[in-house]
Write a structure and sequence with these properties.
418 residues; alpha/beta; Urease, subunit C, domain 1; TIM Barrel; 2 domains; eight-stranded parallel β-sheet; six-stranded mixed β-sheet; 35% helix; 19% strand; binds N-(iminomethyl)-L-glutamic acid; binds fe (iii) ion
Length: 418
């Protein structure tokens, strides 16, 4: 995230509600996911880019040190959203696939017909580093405009050493140029590139050596694998995870998206920080996640955008005590959305989460799943002053109006960036 000079003191006054997400200093589970801290008649006070606290209205600016007042009269104030699963950097788009899907083609059929991940790989390989930075910058601004202030971002549209490193460097550059905080993941194991189809082992070998370089150059914090029929097997994932751990990268995994391949249990076996997708995960798989402390990251917008009907079993996961996270899965194929408000809406309408649970799963829980819960995800003393102001009087309107509400202002470290 770009370094900014923070205003020394900032008071946000007049909000109809400030939702703090204050609570224990860890991800929230079970009934805690419903405790979001809705406060009325309060001001948010920040200094030097950090939250000082939420105080009864009018008690905070009387000492004469207040240099900036933000009028939030009649509005809602929330922590910035934390999006724990995005594919930030790719060239081009996959507009054609929409009509193919409308005509009944599946994800696998579209990929076999020359669309899918490989078609984006071809376009991304042809883009210069400068172009990729420009794309990342543009996408970053769309995330901010939708109220998201921290994202995890995966590579995975290069699938060769040179382009994967170029994507990761572009993400690092975008992180320094924009106000969005970007936490990088290396996803060389996103698909087999066209030049390796007959020698799958050789491609896995090349991923292993790329992991070492990525770690040496501090280009990523995590390594990810897409485990699915036609993509990577459990054994590929095991080899990748061993190498990633040796190199000091932690694991996140795409599992059980189109079929239950035992991916949740595999993520548990490999000690992954998160298991993402989980549309087809069984009760036994959920048990394994709970036993191993793997965070489920649910991506309902990808189910929706693919026109599918099977959403992950969020209710069962919450009832089992898992710290559920929801994320956009922003990518050109299965989920071209930047919007966490839209994802929270899907969480409620399609996965039977309550609005409170959805908000927890979009702020404080993803912050902990990305190991930044001590800094972002809630409005509590000492955390970064990353917050959003919404043109509504009740925070639930953000979940209630799918695809039709945006923040009127977005603050990062106490600076207005949108
Ligand atoms: O998370 N499942 C794998 N990766 C993406 C889709 C990528 C693409 O279609 O370009 C996902 O849904
Ligand atoms: Fe994904």
């Amino acid at each position: 995230m770009q370094e900014l000079v923070s205003s020394p003191r900032l008071v946000v006054k007049g909000a109809s509600q400030i939702v703090s997400l204050a609570g224990p200093a860890r991800a929230r589970v079970g009934s805690e996911m419903g405790d979001i801290g809705v406060m009325t008649g309060v001001d948010l006070v920040c200094s030097n880019g950090l939250v000082e606290g939420v105080f009864p209205a009018g008690t905070s600016s009387s000492d004469g040190k207040c240099l900036e007042i933000v009028d939030a009269t009649g509005c809602v104030v929330l922590p910035g959203f934390v999006d724990a699963h995005t594919h930030l950097v790719f060239a081009g788009n996959r507009l054609d696939e929409m009509a193919m899907r409308s005509a009944g083609a599946t994800y696998a059929e579209i990929a076999a017909a020359g669309g899918g991940i490989r078609s984006t790989v071809a376009k991304t390989r042809a883009a210069s580093e400068e172009e990729l930075v420009e794309i990342a910058f543009r996408h970053a601004n769309r995330f901010l405009a939708n109220g998201t202030t921290t994202i995890e971002a995966k590579s995975g549209y290069g699938l060769d050493l040179e382009t994967e490193l170029r994507i990761l460097r572009a993400m690092r550059e975008a992180d320094s140029l924009t106000r969005l905080s970007i936490l990088p993941t290396y996803l060389g194991a996103h698909a087999f590139p066209a030049e390796f189809t007959s020698e799958t082992d050789a491609y896995v070998e090349s991923i292993l050596s790329t992991i070492d370089l990525v770690a040496e150059q501090s280009l990523a914090l995590w390594c990810d694998v897409f485990v699915e029929e036609g993509y990577f097997s459990a054994d590929h994932a095991r080899r990748i995870a061993v190498r990633a751990h040796q190199a000091g990268l932690r694991m996140r995994m795409h599992v059980d998206q189109f079929a239950d391949s035992g991916g949740a249990a595999l993520a548990a076996e490999l000690g992954a920080d998160s298991a993402d997708h989980l549309e087809y995960t069984s009760t036994a798989g959920i048990e394994e996640l709970a036993r191993a402390g793997v965070v489920p990251v649910l991506l309902p917008a990808s189910v929706y955008c693919l026109g599918l009907l099977r959403y992950p079993a969020a209710r069962e996961m919450i009832d089992r005590g898992l710290p559920v996270v929801v994320a956009t899965d922003f990518n050109p194929g299965s989920s071209p959305t930047f919007s966490m408000p839209f994802v929270t809406s899907l969480a409620c309408t399609q996965m039977r989460m309550t609005p409170e649970e959805a908000l927890t799963a979009a702020t404080i829980n993803p912050a902990y799943s990305l190991a930044v819960g001590d800094r972002v995800g809630s409005l509590e003393q000492g955390k970064q002053a990353n917050f959003t102001i919404w043109p509504c009087q009740d925070w639930r309107e953000i979940v209630y109006h799918p695809g039709s509400i945006w923040p009127s202002q977005v603050f990062v470290s106490g600076n207005c960036v949108v």
